[in-house]
Amino acid sequence: MHRSYLFVPGNRPDRYEKACQSRAHAVIVDLEDAVAADAKDAARSALVDWLPRAPRAVLVRVNAADSEWFDDDARLAAAPNVAGLLLPKAERVDDVRRTAAVRADVAVYPLIETAQGLWNALALAQAPGVQALLFGSLDFQSDLGTSDEDLLFARSQLVLVSRVARIAAPIDGVTQSIDDGGAVRRDAERGRRLGFGGKACIHPNQVDIVNDCFAPTAEEIRWAEAIVAAFAKSAGDAVRVDGRMVDRPVLLKAQAILSARASEAS
Q: Residue 219, CB half-sphere, CA atoms under 13 Å: how many?
């Protein structure tokens, strides 16, 4: 399961390889916000030239569905080493369908960046090809005229919607502070507590912190192993562990923690 998603500007092909060499679980080449209007075609061309020799598959953030660049960007779904497309300003299910139409198995990541996008989040999450929702927290703040500290409801809604739609847990937005590891850790830990599955990064310095925050801790693993071992001896009945009665929902949580550890090991 991916936990860290590292953005790299589409108009900086010199940085593509470095991003791929990082410990980020996913690399996102950004053709939207990171690229000025007069450089978008050149950025796309640079990406097309590089993709056949890319050392790993990448995600691509295309331009918005109502932009003049969207159709050409979306065709990148058919290019080699493209694992999926991020759709910015996602608000309409039809736009998700357009994004997924180029390749039947392409993974689509709608970016929830507006109030309308959040309002329609469940329909977007249930659209064809959607792998996970990504919270564009900076644009969302701008749309609502609020601050990051005031977005608890929005974040919780995305977690709930993702679960109802039976897709992967959502991906939290970026932390703007590149050199403030404490801020990255604080934001990542908050996201994990709320039920996010990972977090977007804007600099390689943030990747290891995010990976660490979303990984099961040693204490959680010890607890999960104790729960699973106790249930194995109880023939499925509720069991007492460390002075507490625990039943099947607790077992499922313990199994999920051990599954996450196994995924990390592989």
A: 0
Q: Which two tokens stand for residue 86?
A: 């991020």
Residue 228 and residue 127 in one domain: no
> How many domains does the chain contain in total?
2
Contacts of 240 (CB under 8 A, 6+ apart): 230, 246
**pLDDT by position in tens, the chain (length 266):** 789 999 999 999 999 999 999 999 999 999 999 999 999 999 999 999 999 999 999 999 999 999 999 999 999 999 999 999 999 999 999 999 999 999 989 999 999 999 999 999 999 999 999 999 999 999 999 999 999 999 999 999 999 999 999 999 999 999 999 999 999 999 999 999 999 999 999 999 999 999 999 987 677 777 777 777 777 777 666 777 777 777 777 777 777 777 766 666 54
Cβ-count burial of 82 within 10 angstroms (0-12 exposed, 13-18 middle, 19+ buried)? Answer: buried
Based on the fold, state whether residues 116 and 228 are members of the same structural domain.
no
Give the global pTM: 0.87
Question: Which domain does 232 fall in, by range?
Answer: 218-265
Tell me, yes or no, whether 173 and 253 share the same domain: no
